Amino acid sequence: xxQKVKFTRSEAEVALRxxxxxxxxxxxxxxxxxxxxxxxxxxxxxxxxxxxxxxxAHGPGFGEGEYAILDFYRRNTSFPVPEPYFCDxxxxxxxxxxxxxxxxxxxxxGRAERWMGTPDRVRVEREMAEAVAELHTHKRDRFxxxxxxxxxxxxxxxFRRSVLSEYEKAEATGLLSPDVKAKIPRLIDLIPxxxxxxxxxxxxxxxxWAANIMVDKGAEGAELSGFLDARGIYAHPEFELAYLEIxxxxxxxxxxxxxxxxxxxxxxxxxxxxxWLNTLLIHVHYFRERxxxxxxxxxxxxxxxxxx
Length: 308
Hints:
This protein is of the alpha+beta class. It has helices at about 10-20, 65-75, 110, 120-135, 155-170, 180-190, 190-195, 235-245, 250-260, 270-285, 290-305, and strands spanning about 25-30, 40-45, 50-60, 85-90, 95-100, 105-110, 145, 200-205, 215-220, 220-225, 235. A 5-stranded antiparallel sheet has the order 1-2-3-5-4. Strands 6-9-10 form a 3-stranded antiparallel sheet. β9 and β10 form a beta hairpin. The radius of gyration is 21 Å and the shape is globular. The chain starts with 8 loop residues before the first helix and ends with a helix.
């Protein structure tokens, strides 16, 4: 989880000077919400590129990975992500390693829901669907990170191992009931068989939910500004679609537009339940809240009735 970070104007000016190669005056350091692993700040300064977003962590080592991810999407797709400007992994001049990137206009979709009406929602979902559909045209031969060649391992087996790892971490919290703990490993063993729907390894965002979707107010209402925190992975496209649905991030409009070019494969409505199980296990481990525990147990019992 994220450590609390205090970032001062003077520290921001040191980092800005390292990036720009000139002295600039920082006028505001504004903490942003939504960073669950790293601290995030909006920095205002006297320059044409102001404001920018700083993502940072205590000590050295952070920044290069996300810089490379953003650069990859911008160079190889039309998927709208922030432009990465600079990163310093050394923590040599300030006690943080950091990434400086473009500040996308507007606010995240979760906050924008306060003022978005039905026409706004329809417009944003349509724009999201067009962006995701284009992203999902980018294929390669193997699943895995864009930074490596991946493996020939089938998607179902790869995902089975991932879910098993998440289950072991969730189980270690001691929050899951004995009957559910008896069922989940058996369900995980079925994943290679259930997730048999063929698909080429597809470039996905990998973490699409309301906090990572930026929405701005345009002349005609809400419009998509871009996407945050992309993971840079090649996966089964249903992995992305199921994640969009579990938190009701999108609805009918998105799928109507997306399926014009990417029809859903038969059985998706069942397969998505296994993707949801993975997501809920992650949330049990990270947040340890009763809501996620109950949702995990309800879904497990539902899957058990269907498959066990």
